[in-house]
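Field reference: sequence -> structure
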Amino acid sequence: MKLYFVYILFCSDGTYYTGMTNDLERRLAQHQSGYKKGSYTHLRRPVILKWQLQCTNPSEAIKIEKQIKGWSHKKKQALIEENWSDLIEFSKNYTEYGHPKNRDKPS
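Structure field:
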């Protein structure tokens, strides 16, 4: 069975990079070596693997990768730390719930 991996890297500049591959070891080595000069991680090395998810369906892996790429830094951090309450909080719609900084303030 072929496996696909969605992964999050922590970059040296404090940002996160999210990717998908069918060979995680090879892909991590490419990120560390600066394999592609124009890539996001090239000037942000070294990188550290912080989170990964195995999938058997490539379409599902791509869907999850795209979803995570749209997340905020704090939401990715909550996923990495398995902080489910923060992950839920950071998933709330600002239009419906207001900005997180203002949610606890009385109306």
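Note: The two ends are 55 Å apart (CA to CA).
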